[in-house]
Amino acid sequence: MRKFCKVTAECGYTWSTEINGTDEEIRNYFKIGSLINVGRGENDRMVKIAKVQISPDKGEFGGFCNRSACSEFPAVHYNAIMDKHYCAKCARSLNEQNRDLYPNGLVEKNPKQLTPELIDLYS
Asked: What pTM did the predictor assign?
Protein backbone atom coordinates (compact mmCIF):
# COMPACT_ATOMS: atom_id res chain seq x y z
CA MET A 1 0.00 0.00 0.00
CA ARG A 2 1.39 3.39 -0.96
CA LYS A 3 1.75 5.83 1.91
CA PHE A 4 2.96 9.38 2.40
CA CYS A 5 5.71 9.74 5.01
CA LYS A 6 7.45 12.64 6.69
CA VAL A 7 10.84 11.80 8.20
CA THR A 8 12.67 14.02 10.68
CA ALA A 9 16.36 13.69 11.50
CA GLU A 10 17.89 14.52 14.88
CA CYS A 11 19.59 17.55 13.29
CA GLY A 12 16.13 18.96 12.41
CA TYR A 13 16.30 18.17 8.68
CA THR A 14 12.93 16.88 7.38
CA TRP A 15 11.78 15.41 4.11
CA SER A 16 8.57 13.95 2.75
CA THR A 17 8.28 10.95 0.48
CA GLU A 18 5.82 8.45 -0.89
CA ILE A 19 6.63 4.81 -0.16
CA ASN A 20 4.99 1.43 -0.66
CA GLY A 21 4.58 -0.84 2.34
CA THR A 22 2.72 -1.51 5.53
CA ASP A 23 3.23 0.79 8.51
CA GLU A 24 5.51 -1.85 10.05
CA GLU A 25 7.63 -2.17 6.89
CA ILE A 26 7.94 1.62 6.63
CA ARG A 27 8.92 1.96 10.29
CA ASN A 28 11.55 -0.76 9.78
CA TYR A 29 12.91 1.02 6.71
CA PHE A 30 13.04 4.40 8.50
CA LYS A 31 14.02 2.91 11.87
CA ILE A 32 14.32 5.49 14.66
CA GLY A 33 18.00 5.94 15.53
CA SER A 34 19.32 4.49 12.27
CA LEU A 35 21.51 6.46 9.88
CA ILE A 36 20.35 7.38 6.40
CA ASN A 37 22.16 9.22 3.61
CA VAL A 38 20.38 12.41 2.55
CA GLY A 39 23.26 13.57 0.36
CA ARG A 40 24.61 12.54 -3.00
CA GLY A 41 28.07 11.63 -4.24
CA GLU A 42 30.67 13.97 -2.81
CA ASN A 43 27.92 15.63 -0.80
CA ASP A 44 27.03 12.51 1.21
CA ARG A 45 25.39 13.47 4.48
CA MET A 46 24.50 10.81 7.02
CA VAL A 47 21.76 11.79 9.47
CA LYS A 48 20.11 9.90 12.34
CA ILE A 49 16.36 9.36 12.07
CA ALA A 50 14.44 10.86 15.00
CA LYS A 51 10.78 10.70 13.93
CA VAL A 52 8.62 9.07 11.24
CA GLN A 53 5.04 10.09 10.47
CA ILE A 54 2.90 7.90 8.19
CA SER A 55 -0.35 8.81 6.45
CA PRO A 56 -3.55 6.81 6.90
CA ASP A 57 -4.45 4.24 4.20
CA LYS A 58 -5.81 5.32 0.79
CA GLY A 59 -9.47 6.25 1.10
CA GLU A 60 -9.28 6.69 4.87
CA PHE A 61 -9.87 10.09 6.48
CA GLY A 62 -6.70 12.16 6.09
CA GLY A 63 -5.01 9.70 3.70
CA PHE A 64 -4.72 9.74 -0.09
CA CYS A 65 -7.89 10.21 -2.18
CA ASN A 66 -9.74 6.92 -2.80
CA ARG A 67 -9.88 7.36 -6.59
CA SER A 68 -7.33 4.99 -8.11
CA ALA A 69 -6.11 7.61 -10.61
CA CYS A 70 -5.69 10.27 -7.91
CA SER A 71 -2.86 10.78 -5.44
CA GLU A 72 -4.08 13.98 -3.77
CA PHE A 73 -4.24 14.31 -0.02
CA PRO A 74 -5.61 14.77 2.50
CA ALA A 75 -8.89 13.02 1.69
CA VAL A 76 -11.56 14.64 3.88
CA HIS A 77 -14.73 14.30 1.75
CA TYR A 78 -16.81 11.24 2.65
CA ASN A 79 -18.82 8.97 0.35
CA ALA A 80 -21.18 6.96 2.59
CA ILE A 81 -22.02 4.45 -0.18
CA MET A 82 -18.36 3.53 -0.70
CA ASP A 83 -17.43 4.21 2.96
CA LYS A 84 -14.30 5.99 1.65
CA HIS A 85 -12.83 9.50 1.56
CA TYR A 86 -11.89 11.65 -1.44
CA CYS A 87 -9.97 14.87 -2.10
CA ALA A 88 -11.95 18.06 -2.79
CA LYS A 89 -11.43 17.91 -6.58
CA CYS A 90 -12.63 14.29 -6.90
CA ALA A 91 -15.54 14.94 -4.51
CA ARG A 92 -16.74 17.79 -6.76
CA SER A 93 -16.35 15.59 -9.84
CA LEU A 94 -18.26 12.67 -8.29
CA ASN A 95 -21.05 15.00 -7.18
CA GLU A 96 -21.33 16.53 -10.68
CA GLN A 97 -21.35 13.09 -12.37
CA ASN A 98 -24.06 11.79 -10.03
CA ARG A 99 -26.24 14.91 -9.73
CA ASP A 100 -29.30 13.13 -11.27
CA LEU A 101 -29.18 10.26 -8.76
CA TYR A 102 -28.03 12.30 -5.76
CA PRO A 103 -29.26 15.89 -6.12
CA ASN A 104 -28.02 16.76 -2.61
CA GLY A 105 -24.58 15.35 -3.36
CA LEU A 106 -23.02 11.91 -3.15
CA VAL A 107 -19.83 13.02 -1.39
CA GLU A 108 -19.78 15.52 1.45
CA LYS A 109 -17.09 17.02 3.62
CA ASN A 110 -16.50 14.93 6.69
CA PRO A 111 -17.27 16.98 9.81
CA LYS A 112 -14.20 15.49 11.51
CA GLN A 113 -11.24 17.82 11.70
CA LEU A 114 -7.70 16.91 10.74
CA THR A 115 -5.64 16.25 13.84
CA PRO A 116 -2.58 18.39 14.55
CA GLU A 117 -0.47 15.30 13.69
CA LEU A 118 -2.03 15.04 10.20
CA ILE A 119 -1.70 18.78 9.63
CA ASP A 120 1.99 18.53 10.58
CA LEU A 121 2.42 15.48 8.31
CA TYR A 122 1.21 17.36 5.24
CA SER A 123 2.89 20.70 5.99
From this structure: 0.67
